[in-house]
Amino acid sequence: MPPRLLFRRLLSSAIAARAPEVSSAAAPRPTDPALLLRLCTVLYQHQNAPDGALQRRLSALQLPSAPADLRELFLQASARFPLSWRPVHRLVAHLTARHGFAHSPTTAARFLDVLAKSSNVDLLHSTLLSLPPGLLSDAALRAAIRGLAPAREVGKVSALLTLFPEAHRPRLLDFITEVVCSVCKLPDVAEKVIKQAEHRYGLARSGRCCELLVVAYCRAGMFAEACSVWNGMEKRGIEPGAVAYEEIVVTLFKNNRFSDAMKVFDGMRKRGLSAAGGGACYHAVVSWLCKEGRTWCAFMVFAEMVKKGVEVDGEVLGDLVYGLLARRRVREGYNVFHGVKEKDIALYHGMMKGLVRIKRAREATEVFREMVASGCEPNMHTYIMLLQGHLGKRGRKGRDPLVNFESIFVGGLVKAGRTLEATKFVERTMWGGVDVPRFDYNKFLHYFSNEEGVAMFEEVGMRLRETGHVDLGDIFLTYGERMATRDRRRRAMNGRLTELQDYSSLSPSQESEARSI
User: Fold this and answer.
1) How big, in percent rounded to 5, are the helix, strand and coil portions of the chain?
2) What is the DSSP string of 325-347?
3) Backbone angles phi, psi at 435, to 5 degrees
């Protein structure tokens, strides 16, 4: 059983053993919206008022009496104040004093989450200690850690171990390390918590803790600290897992230390961990070798993947195709591309990216048409890549003044009311010697992703096709048909739009009539 699932089972068993007897209540009734609005208004307007004034205001409200209804009301009210601790805290105090409110695991986790997001560390810690163990679910602990770790309260985080029996503390330490490293992204705080747990409570760090520290340090750019944890694992006799190996290899590639990365990868292969981790390290090595133009080495690693039975997905094949095309080995790239029977979006993207890299935007558009015809739905990255391939990152002027770059994109920003973005691009163009002008196609497509954008993309696509820019016109027409609105994207994803319309043989009048039909 995985450690995370085992910890949750142990935690649930501890809660069941020590939780107070709670009568099974009926399902809560829906909260009255008018009552909720009035309650939130009173809490907001009188959050700094004296206790007597606030109690009078709240007592005048007809609050429900059933415990389940009270909890539902608290959840609805606290959702209106996700970052303000005072209204929620005073509501809890009033409900407890006047209505006998008792927390459930869900309400306790919500209350701790509000205190954590509002950065009230002292109240968060005191509330956490006052809660009975039966209410400390994994969601409550996660919320408490997210509030204490960014404040670097190492002692208070490590004190969470004392809330559970000694048999559950090793699993709880793994849970704390995972939250601090993965959610809070503070590996230095996690390491301090582990050291304090070792000194105060006699716990020994596990291999899971060390792997989380290595991964978090590498992703935070603290490679020296990651190496220190790695060396400590070897001293303690802890064997690094496939995840730690993969992150170390990727970090070495990012730092242009290719020889060191391949040495670590070779050591991983000798220990037999490369295939055990799902081949993720193989995928990373192939991807980085293709990016650096070392296609021959990438194919050798790919052959080893196939020999060992590691699963080969579209991302690996897409990286191989891109590496071949980037080295202008176009025929070999097409052979690999057409040799795959079931193509996915990663393989199509690798093919189009390589063709755009070697200035073959027209062939990339043909691959795009094949992609749509095969039922593989493009995403936003597909359209941006094709637009950059045809127009470049700075934009290119067309022959017809009605369809050149400035009239479509810069004028489109002005039409959409984004005059500030258009002015910035014009200023960068005028100061081209100092600031390189780059147009953000992503924002442009986002601004026109509505019903008005459907007509705009159709009009621009028609004009581009009439002036001879057939590929660019098809890109705009397809985006307007499949991506301009949420409803169109859903229909395309559900397979209702499976073909890219071809109007190249029709006259403009026939083309508009066909599109209307």
Assistant:
1) 70, 0, 30
2) HHTT-HHHHHHHHHT-SS--HHH
3) -120, 125
Enter the tokens of residue 54.
């606030």
Angle between helices 85-99 and 67-79 (to 10 degrees): 170
CA distance 461 to 469: 9
**Are the CB atoms for 140 and 172 separated by under 8 Å?**
no
Residue 369 · residue 501 · CB < 8 Å: no
CB of 268 closer than 8 Å to CB of 244: no
Residue 216 has pLDDT above 50, yes or no: yes
Q: CA 33 to CA 155: how far, in whole Å?
A: 42
Please tell me the distance from the alpha carbon of residue 517 to that of residue 512, in angstroms, as a whole number: 9
CB 116 within 8 A of CB 85: no
Cβ atoms within 10 Å, residue 343: 19
Q: How many helices (H) and strands (E) does the chain have?
A: 30, 0
Q: pLDDT tens digit string along 300-341? A: 999 988 888 888 888 999 999 999 999 999 999 999 999 998
Write out pLDDT tens, residues 462-511. Answer: 888 887 788 888 888 888 887 766 676 666 666 544 444 444 444 444 44
Once rounded to an integer, what is the mean pLDDT over residues 147-157? Answer: 94
Q: How far apart are CA 473 and CA 506, in angstroms?
A: 14
Sign of CA dihedral 79, 81, 84, 87: negative
Long-range contacts of 102-108 (CB under 8 A, 24+ apart): 102/22, 102/67, 103/131, 103/135, 104/22, 104/71, 104/135, 105/15, 105/134, 105/135, 105/137, 105/139, 105/140, 106/71, 106/75, 106/139, 107/71, 107/74, 107/75, 108/135, 108/136, 108/137, 108/140
Instruction: Tell me the pLDDT tens digit for each residue of 153-189.
Output: 999 999 999 988 888 899 999 999 999 999 999 999 9
